[in-house]
What we know:
- The complex is a heterodimer of chains A (114) and B (174).
- By secondary structure, chain A is mainly alpha-helical.
- Chain A has four helices and no strands.
- The N and C termini of chain B lie far apart (62 Å).
- Chain B has a domain of 89 residues: NADH-ubiquinone/plastoquinone oxidoreductase chain 6, subunit NuoJ (Four Helix Bundle (Hemerythrin (Met), subunit A), Up-down Bundle), CATH 1.20.120.1200.
- The interface between A and B is large, with 80 and 94 residues.
Amino acid sequence: MNFKLFIYNSTFNMIPLEHFLFVAAALFTLGVVIVITKRNVIVVLMGIELILNAANINLVAFSQYDSALMRGNMFALFVIVIAAAEAAVALAIILQVYHYFKTANIDEINELKG
Amino acid sequence: MSFTAYIFYFFAFMTIVSAIFILTTRNVLYAAFALLGTFLGVSALYVFAGADFLAMAQIMIYIGGVLILILFGIMLTNRIAEHQYLVSSSRNSFFAVTGGVTLFGVLIIAILKANFTSLLWIQEAQKKASVNSTMEKIGENLMTDFVFPFEVAAVILMAALMGAAFIASQVVKK
């Protein structure tokens, strides 16, 4: 099957915009619940990645109707860049906090001044 | 419903089930592997939304970069020999699930009530319906309209990498 035809069919005839938004809403909610409930710092970071991905799905889903300017795609691209930078810095901080407190549990990391 | 629609719902299902698994599992390493399923599913959804470049970027940056980084983080911050350190227990479960279900309900109702297909610019796009590869357009955009955010992103990436290397190389004593 022609790839262009595949995208054309799937985009404009079969999959409604709302279904992308439903998946994104579910992913966003799960990310928020993970950030609230989990105790391990790294799993909280995973929840933040899920939230960013949900926002990206929304941007890309609307961007398919904006093929002239494609602003949603550009925004999603910059979100991915910032997410990568955020993950690198966050993991460096987590490593230092782990060396200091000897734990990755958020509830036990409860003082700022050493 | 056609075959491609089934593929879409399969990937949507995979995305959400992997995310639910991250929420329910207590093992941090299993959560990281489930994150692989979520990222792959999101990348497939990008393909269905006609964003081929972003789908590839998602696979290369998230699965090839962020996920590996997270796996390294898990290996370095959990004592593998004593297995109980891999466990991530939960707190506030009741309030979080109640709030999450409420939030999800509000979002679904908002999406259903918004009726996006009645928007003028979406209807016009549906009439024209010409989808090409996004790669050429993204390249043009990065060098014309978005050249300032592009340069700022470059500076931010360099600052973040230098900052991460600097923070990780500090020696902290208790």
